[in-house]
Specification:
The protein is elongated, with a radius of gyration of 24 Å. The protein has helices at 2-23, 42-61, 84-96, 108-121, 150-163, 178-193, 212-221, 232-244, 262-266, 288-299, 308-325, 330-338, and strands at residues 27-35, 65-66, 69-79, 101-103, 125-127, 143-145, 169-174, 197-203, 225-229, 250-253, 273-278, 362-369, 372-380. The protein has 383 residues and is α/β, with parallel strands linked by helices. The protein starts with a helix and ends with a strand.
């Protein structure tokens, strides 16, 4: 009899221990991140992913808990190659994997292919590099953006040309991608609204290296400024050829063109470039200097390009919303995202408009002096 009772106590104790282990089982929360991590834009895409990786590592070091369970933050990293078709495949993979949210993609074209899919699935998407203005006007209830858009960048370009350089005639060249065309179109509207004359609209593609025919035509039009809508892979040879052909025009580019590697690729011709970037230089961000030291220690200083502070903040904003909601269910975390007021690496009081755009985004205008990118002006849109 005593042995039977003893066995019962042992069994009950074992069940209690099992229940305790079950209750204490960790809660896995998985994010997805998508960028063009290979090809010409590979270093930029990998930098974007690095920001997310660093954020997930920092989150796991905090041992955060939801409902008494420690949260284990996990990450699915995908290479969308900057291709909208591949981005759609990646988005479906994220949906099938039931991720709690997506950071990226890192290009506007890939983001277009992703927005509606994630919206239909009710999964939040935080853009940390895609700046095309139209993304926030697609009717998505799950789209958010921690950088400014091309309308703000274009307005800053036009203001600088008019107020600082007293330019009257401008031309645009774009690579026909969603980002490049969107920036060129936004700039043309902003320039014309300020009384400048757009004397040429030229088009190329995102794989071109020879711009001699385009630049020869523009040389005959004599624009005082040329705005390039595209990325650094084409901006570098474009600058060299502007110099070679003797054009007097100043060249302006957005954040896609003005990444860390542009000066090395363009050589001395980089002095022709005026950069108008959404956001602040990392050393002027509220917590940028300390964060950059940690980034360099983790990935190497040469890995940094442009977007990792924003992809880091995007990840932290998403995690912060989940912790406030006490759930990784997007139906519960989405209302928390909409009411975000987060002090991040890239800025304090990171908040969203109803369409998901960032409230009062910053824009930085920089020039190159002896190959070094030097900020000369910072604006805050709508502040």
């Amino acid at each position: 009899m005593h042995r039977t009772i003893h066995r019962m106590y042992v069994a009950i104790a074992a069940l209690g221990a099992f229940a305790s282990v079950a209750i204490a089982a960790p809660l896995n929360v998985t994010f997805g991140t998508s960028a063009a991590a290979t090809g010409p834009r590979g270093p930029v895409g990998q930098d974007f992913n690095n920001g997310v990786i660093l954020a997930v590592e920092d989150l796991n070091r905090q041992h955060l808990r939801i409902g008494g369970r420690e949260v284990v933050w996990k990450l699915i990293v995908e290479d969308d190659q900057g291709d909208p078709r591949q981005a759609a495949v990646v988005a479906q993979k994220f949906i099938d994997s039931r991720v709690a949210g997506v950071i990226g993609p890192d290009s506007s074209g890939a983001s277009y292919a992703t927005v509606r899919l994630l919206d239909a699935a009710g999964i939040p998407m935080i853009a940390a590099a895609s700046t095309d203005t139209r993304l926030a006007h697609m009717g998505s209830k799950t789209f958010f953006r921690v950088v400014g858009d091309d309308a703000g960048v274009a307005a800053a370009m036009a203001n600088y040309l008019q107020q600082n350089l007293h330019v009257h005639t401008v031309a645009t060249i774009d690579d026909r991608t969603a980002y490049g065309q969107g920036l060129a179109d936004a700039f043309a509207r902003a320039a014309e609204a300020r009384g400048m004359r757009v004397v040429g609209r030229e088009y190329t593609n995102d794989k071109a290296t020879d711009f001699s025919a385009i630049l020869t035509r523009l040389r005959g039009m004599q624009p005082e400024a040329i705005v390039y809508g595209g990325t650094f892979a084409q901006a570098a040879p474009l600058l060299r050829q502007v110099e070679h052909l003797g054009l007097k025009s100043v060249v302006l580019g957005g954040d896609g063109a003005c990444v860390q590697g542009l000066a090395r690729m363009a050589g001395p011709a980089v002095r022709r470039m005026v950069c108008v970037d959404s956001g602040l230089p990392v050393d002027r961000m509220p917590a940028g200097a300390d964060w950059k030291r940690r980034y360099d220690s983790r990935f190497g200083a040469e890995a940094f390009q442009a977007y990792s502070p924003y992809s880091y903040d995007a990840t932290m904003v998403l995690a912060h919303a989940i912790m406030r909601a006490g759930s990784s269910d997007p139906a519960k975390s989405l209302p928390m995202l909409r009411s975000t007021d987060y002090n991040g690496i890239s800025r304090e009081h990171l908040r969203f408009l109803p369409n998901g755009n960032l409230v009062h985004p910053d824009v930085t205008i920089s020039v190159y002096r002896e190959g070094v990118k030097v900020p000369i002006k910072v604006e805050s849109e709508g502040a």
